[in-house]
Amino acid sequence: MTPDPLCDDDGDEGGGRGGGRGGGGGGVGAPDRDALWRILATRRDHRHFHPTPVPRETIERLLEVFTVAPSVGLSQPWHVTVIEDRGVREAVHAGFRAVRAAEARRFDGERRALYDSLRLEGILQAPVGLVVSHVPPSGPVLGTTSVPAATEYSVIAAITLLWLAVTAEGLGMGWVSLVDPDHLSGSVPLPDGARPLAYLCLGYPALTLDEPLLQTVGWGRRSPLSVDWV
After folding, report:
1. Cα distance between residue 59 and residue 165, in whole Å
2. The pTM is what?
3. Which neighbouring-strand residues pair with 128?
4. What is the mean pLDDT of residues 58-87?
5. Residue 28 — very low, low, confident or very high, per pLDDT cuts 50/70/90?
6. Which of 112, 88, 90, 87 is nearest to 101 (CA)?
7. Closest CA to 180 of 96, 103, 87
8. HEC-encoded secondary structure of the chain
9. Quick one: which of 155, 154, 163 has its CA closest to 132?
């Protein structure tokens, strides 16, 4: 019996077959493959931004990533809030300052001095903020019986693809992890039930980073991949 390709459970769970900007399956040529690897290698977590506004059409084009991103059970459990308003960004920044102060107390000595010198966000410098939230599906989702958190994993996977698209557009993006989700929910208008998973700074980068910034300043270094073959 010939398997039905529409029922075979080894395919992509993304935005649909042949949908979105990317079209259907098929291989890519060497130039496209090389370009992808350059984007992967040059993607950085940016914290220094020019104030130059990002055109709305560019933001809209970047958000098309979510129409082709994979999601478990084709659930698409995400919502994006685009923040350009200065007042909202100032409210988010106030929450960041509180979390940063709490985290600073976890370090001491030279490590604390280095921590205090680090720029860890660009909330007020970047002209655009993006809050990407998880929206719980209203019913059972295929593929989540043993791993209910797979819908949240799908949101994170989509953010990763967005980061690559931002890099390809010549822009920079920084993920601000020093924010409290409850404070973020109170500072940014979100749909009912949405839980913010990421605050992302978006804009034109003010620094060219040949390597991760934390590596440049001596906070840490990338480690070799730990892998086993069985």
Report:
1. 11
2. 0.89
3. 202
4. 98
5. confident
6. 112
7. 96
8. CCCCCCCCCCCCCCCCCCCCCCCCCCCCCHHHHHHHHHHHHHCCECCCECCCCCCHHHHHHHHCHHHHCCCHHHCCCEEEEEECCHHHHHHHHHHHHHHHHHHHCCCCHHHHHHHHHCCCCCCCCCCEEEEEEECCCCCCCCCCCCCCCHHHHHHHHHHHHHHHHHHHCCCEEEEECCCCHHHHHHHCCCCCCCEEEEEEEEECECCCCCCCHHHHCCCCCCCCCCCCCC
9. 155
Which of 200, 167, 172 is closest to 78 using CA atoms? Answer: 200
Average pLDDT over residues 8-20: 44
Q: Distance (Å, rounded) from C-alpha 5 to C-alpha 19?
A: 16
Q: Give CA 109 to chain center in angstroms.
A: 32
User: Cα(186)–Cα(207) distance, rounded to whole angstroms?
Assistant: 32
Higher per-residue pLDDT: 21 or 217 = 217
Q: Enumerate the β-bridge partners of residue 176.
A: 199
Look-up: residue for tokens 């700074």? Answer: 201
